[in-house]
Amino acid sequence: MASPRKKSAVATTSRARLASVIKSARDTMRKDAGLNGDLDRLPQLSWLLFLKAFDQRVEQVGPLLDPDYRLAIDAPYRWQDWAANPDFSGAELKAFVNDKLIPYLAELKGAEGDADDPRNVLSTIFKDVTNRMQSGTLLRDLVNLVDEIHFDSSDDIHTMAFLYESILKEMRDAAGDSGEFYTPRPVNRFMVQQSFLELGESILDPACGTGGFLVQAYEDLVQRVETDTQRRRLHNDLRGIEKKSLPYLLASMNLLLHGIGAPRLVRENALLQMRDATAADRVDVVLTNPPFGGEEERSVVERFPKGYQTQETSWLFLRAILDQLKPGGRCAIVLPNGSLFANGENSIGARIKKKLMQDCNLHTIVRLPQGVFAPYTQIPSNLLFFEKGQSTEEVWFYEIAPPDGRRGYSKTKPMQVEEFEPCVEWWGGVKREGRVDGGNAWMVSAVEVEKSGFNLDFSNPHDGEELAHRSPDEIVTELIKVEDEIRGLLEEVLDQLKGRV
């Protein structure tokens, strides 16, 4: 292996240059016969970006900050040893990556039980990584392009994170066809904002996917950091669990790009992880959008107490979270309409909601319109906010209405963060003061919920009030708008069908 090329001491990458490099990288991967679509290309790009960023932001900086810092990766497996060498190419490079580099990284062992040891992070990521590129020459071209990206400054990190998230969005659209659901950024932002996070609080997403909630929480809290101790504590307080290897890799890269060198992510079945948790593992805040509509295997279901055993994943997540929270802890969780509905007082869903309302103050349910999670699903969803330690006396509902008389959202017309602003104004701050019943908001007592068999699927009682005071002209105009929207949606469906022919 020839010696790597030397680079200037200071290197920066503009947003335009980064966009150009990423485009060239994707074009290069499209030429390789081993990669089929973004579901192959993005993981390939991500693990290479991860190694480049890790080398520059962790391995090269670590010894400067800590004289006792131990390099996580030994030569010749460091990025600067092999990737920065333009003469190392073709079959020789491909064999090195496949037979030596990836196996070496997958077998790294850090200090046992040390979540901050980067070797543990690297081995967890790379035990499922595969180089899918068949051409060693194209692999060399891709590595050269990644090596042009620099992470020397905070501006570089923010720019790369911005571009990476835009690629992630495209990836999520493709993943939706394979059953993966992701939370739109406006929903992430609203849930984090209305959780009123504080520095020093432990924050968990037990279904972290590509890390959207954790990144949003970090962006919210890092603005308040004033010392290195606070920064290290913040990095340690952001925790995620992800079952699948691809989202785990993408989340690790996402957090690294936001400045977290050793993300506290666990690749496990979150339900088992939470059932095995001790009191020391409990957290202050849970922010999550658990998978719903799926079924857990019997061995997982049997880990739950009698009377709460169900194969419905969303119910199990909700039940597990109740034990995962510290006393006084709080949660913001996405649940589908079906989870609010209870088909009988003795159903498992009703029992879980009864326990929720006995153990926690379920103070707010935000009802989302249809299509917020398009293109993955048209199922209407809800955001539940609760605090552990005090029983529920009343539940406030707030219904988010689509703009301009629309009935819902679509992939081409997604929800915008500004559409949560009326709800934020109504919320009443951290103490939820001054809430008013009327319009989009209404309150239901815990007694009413109990009488309904713990059915939380309450519709807005004020829906007919506005209609009763509208003129015939307004109603007809509204109907025309609805017809136009339906026509637009049907045209979208038609275009998609044509595209499959």
From TrEMBL:
Spans through the membrane: none
Keywords: Methyltransferase, Restriction system, S-adenosyl-L-methionine, Transferase
Gene3D superfamilies: 1.20.1260.30, Vaccinia Virus protein VP39
Highest taxon, organism lineage: Bacteria
InterPro entries reported in the protein's UniProt record: D12N6_MeTrfase_N, DNA_Adenine_Mtase, DNA_methylase_A-5, DNA_methylase_N6_adenine_CS, SAM-dependent_MTases_sf, T1MK-like_N_sf
Domain DNA methylase adenine-specific: 157-467
EC numbers on record: 2.1.1.72
Catalytic activity line of the entry: a 2'-deoxyadenosine in DNA + S-adenosyl-L-methionine = an N(6)-methyl-2'-deoxyadenosine in DNA + S-adenosyl-L-homocysteine + H(+)
Residue stretches making up the N6 adenine-specific DNA methyltransferase N-terminal domain: 18-145
Tagged with keyword Methyltransferase: yes
UniProt KW rRNA processing keyword: no
Family: Belongs to the N(4)/N(6)-methyltransferase family.
Annotated protein name in UniProt: site-specific DNA-methyltransferase (adenine-specific)
Organism: Nocardia callitridis
